[in-house]
Structures are given as C-alpha cells and as structure tokens.
Amino acid sequence: MRSGFNLRMKFSSLLRRIFSKRFLKFGTVGVSGIVVNQGVLYFAQEYIFHVSHARGEVDWLGLNLSLGLAIFFATLNNFFWNRLWTWADRKQHYDRPWPLQFGQYTLSCSLSIALQVMFTNLLAPHVYYMIANFIAIVFTSVLNFLLNDIWTFGRVKLLPRHAQSSDDAP
pLDDT per residue over 137-152, tens digit each? Predict the structure, then answer.
C-alpha cells in the first residue's frame, strides 16, 4: 500500500514539474531553439551539404551532417537562454564555469539528441525532412526538460561537495 502511495506522489511531482511556469519558459526557449535548428538545418541541407538525387531520394550523409550542425547551434542557443532565464533563480549553478556546465547540459541532452536524429531519419523518407525534424523535436522536449531540471540546473551536483574540496582529504 505504502509503495503505491509513494509512486503516486512521485508521479504527481513529475506532473507538477512538467506543467509549471518553468516548463513554459523552457518551451519558449525551445521555440527559439527550433527556429535556430530549422534555420541551420535548411541552410546546411540546401546550400552546404546539398547533393542532387533523384526525386524522393534522401541524401543520408548530407542530412546527418546538416542535422549535426543544426543540433549544435540549437543546443548552444538553448543552453545560454535556459541558464540566463529559465533557471536563473537557481544561483547554485553559477558556481561552476559555464564550459563545464555546457558539457553537463550537452550530456543531459545527448539522449534527446540521439532520439531526435533517429526519429528524423525514420520519418524523412515519408515526410519532408523539415517536418520530420520538427516532429522529432516535439517528442524529445519533455525528456530534455526533465533531465535538465533535475541534473544540469537542479540540485543534483556533478560531484559530491566533499569530493570537490581537497581540504577534506585525510
């Protein structure tokens, strides 16, 4: 009985996180990231890595190089806006240098990034690649929010406090 209650409480806490003001901020930043992602993806696919193929054929190498570039710039955009606005009230994350925190942010986003690439590649043969990418972003955004809310900008530290200081060593 007690474990069922604990499970309901954890699920309730998860829903509160998702339907919060912070999630709306995260979503707003995410929209700016989508604009960056889609803009870079289109530019890279059409002008940098474009290879002419028969109608309907997908250039997998060009698409994935374009996706990599688009995801990098969108991740950079989202990291800085989330740090400055979405989680600005969590001052404890300012004690880490931003390159270290960006690495942590990228690591926490890596599952979402991998899923975005996978879903885009799965959908691209069936719908326009820009639409495929947009659908993939929407599906992975909630997972991305939760990982960053709990770990990157949350109260979970990269290293335990005692491991960060050499003064505590015997």
Answer: 888 888 888 888 888 8
- Domain range for 87 is 20-157
**Taking a C-beta distance cutoff of 8 angstroms, is the pair 153, 90 a contact?**
yes
Helices (H), the chain: 2-18, 21-43, 60-81, 98-123, 129-147, 161-164
Tally of structural domains, the chain: 1
For residue 161, how far is the Cα from the chain centroid?
Answer: 26
Query: Which one-letter DSSP state was computed for residue 153?
Result: S
Burial of residue 129, with CB atoms counted within 10 A of its CB: 0-12 exposed, 13-18 middle, 19 or more buried: buried
pTM summary value:
0.70
At residue 79 the predicted structure's pLDDT band, cuts being 50, 70 and 90, is very high
C-beta atoms surrounding 10 within 10 Å = 10
In a domain, 72, yes or no: yes
Helix axes 129-147, 2-18, angle to 10 degrees: 120
Tokens of 25: 């901020």
Rounded to whole angstroms, how far apart are CA atoms 75 and 30?
10
In a domain, 163, yes or no: no
Q: Give a yes or no: residue 74 inside a domain.
A: yes
Residue 2 lies in a domain: no
